[in-house]
Amino acid sequence: MLYRGSCHCGDVKFDAQGDLQGVMACNCSICRRKGALLWFVPRAHVTFSTPDDNLATYTFNQHTIRHRFCKRCGIHTFAEATHPNGTEMVCINVRCLEDVDPDVLPVTLYDGRSR
């Protein structure tokens, strides 16, 4: 299924193709503060219609995950990382997807704080 997503002001827009399964809530220091629900999608299944100049990047700790957010409204729309098997992944904030009610999705709790 095709999902469309964006930040609040619309400067960051993307389409993601896949089954909306495996949604996670992480309790690490940044995810807990952002309140994001995470959906991991291979980078090849995500299309961005946003110039990279509209995005800011934040990294911390081991700098393996690039947390991306809109420069204008500050909404965290996704993150980028490499799966241990080498696949480039996009971690989409489900709360930024159009026509998706995150309150009805099954969510797995992930203990990122302990890792």
Automatic annotation (TrEMBL):
<dbReference type="Pfam" id="PF04828">
    <property type="entry name" value="GFA"/>
</dbReference>
<keyword id="KW-0479">Metal-binding</keyword>
<keyword id="KW-0862">Zinc</keyword>
<comment type="similarity">
    <text>Belongs to the Gfa family.</text>
</comment>
<dbReference type="InterPro" id="IPR006913">
    <property type="entry name" value="CENP-V/GFA"/>
</dbReference>
<dbReference type="InterPro" id="IPR011057">
    <property type="entry name" value="Mss4-like_sf"/>
</dbReference>
<dbReference type="InterPro" id="IPR052355">
    <property type="entry name" value="CENP-V-like"/>
</dbReference>
<feature type="domain" description="CENP-V/GFA">
    <location>
        <begin position="3"/>
        <end position="111"/>
    </location>
</feature>
<protein>
    <submittedName>
        <fullName>GFA family protein</fullName>
    </submittedName>
</protein>
<dbReference type="GO" id="GO:0046872">
    <property type="term" value="F:metal ion binding"/>
</dbReference>
<dbReference type="GO" id="GO:0016846">
    <property type="term" value="F:carbon-sulfur lyase activity"/>
</dbReference>
